[in-house]
Amino acid sequence: PDDPPALYVEHVDVTYGRAVSALRDVSLTVPHGRVVALLGANGAGKSTLLRAVSGTLRLHRGAITAGRVRYGGTVLDGRDPVAAVRAGVVQVPEGRRVFAGLTVDENLRSGGLGLGRRGPAQTAEARDRVFTLFPRLAERSRQAAGLLSGGEQQMLAIGRALMAAPRLLLLDEPSLGLAPLMVDRIAEVVREIHAQGTAVLLVEQNAGMALSLADHAHVLETGEVRLSGPASDLAGTDAVRRLYLGEE
Ligand code: ATP
Q: Which SUPFAM superfamilies does this one have (predicted)?
C-alpha cells in the first residue's frame, strides 16, 4: 500500500461477452495528484479502461479476464462501483448522464450516495465546494437538470462526481459536443480540480486540450497501449500530430 495512493493498472485484459476483446495487456499508472491523458480513436478502448477502474464494466457485460487494478493498497478489479467510490475513485461517464427530471441540487446529492453515513454538514460542505467551482450550478440549483445547456450538464456531471470527494477522478470525454468556449471552461475546471490535489485520468478525443492539461499521456490503439510518455513529448511526435492534432 502506498500513501498517498496511486492508481496501478497492470497487464489488464478486458472482454465483452464471450468474444469481443477490448483491452489487451494494458498497463499504466496515475500517480497521486497528477493528470494523465488517454488518447485514441473511436473504439480503441478508452471508455473500457475507465470502466475497468471504476467497477462499472459489468454493467456493460464486460469483464477483466487478466491483470490487476489497484488504487494504493485496494484491489479494484472484480469489485463494484461502490468499492471504487469508497476507495476514492469516481468516474464521470461519457455523455454527461444526469437525471433530467431531478433538480440540479438533487443530482448533486445523489453523488454522495454509497459513502455510508455522511452527515448533512459534510454533504453541505461538499456542495459548497462544487458551487464555488461552478457558480452557474448554484444559480440553477432548483431547476430541472434537463433544462440546462449541454455544457452546464457536463458541469453537473462533474459536480456530482466531486460530491463523493474523490482522490482520483475518471473523466470520459468531457469536451465532447461542446462549443469551444465551453471546452475552455472545462479545461479550466480540470486545472482547478488538479490544483486542489485530485488526480485525473482524462479520456479525450480533443488531444490538444488533453495534452495541454496532462503530465503524462498514453495512446491506445485497438485495445493496446501504443505510445506512452510525458504529454509534452507526445505532443511533438509525428504520429500524434498527424492522428490526433489534425496536422499534416
Ligand atoms: P469511443 O470514443 O467510441 O467510446 P473508446 O476508445 O472509448 O471509443 P470503447 O468504447 O472502450 O472504445 O470500446 C472498445 C471496444 O469494445 C470496441 O471494439 C467496442 O465496439 C467494444 N465494446 C464497447 N462496449 C461494448 C459492449 N458493451 N459490448 C460489446 N462490445 C463493446
A: P-loop containing nucleoside triphosphate hydrolases (SSF52540)
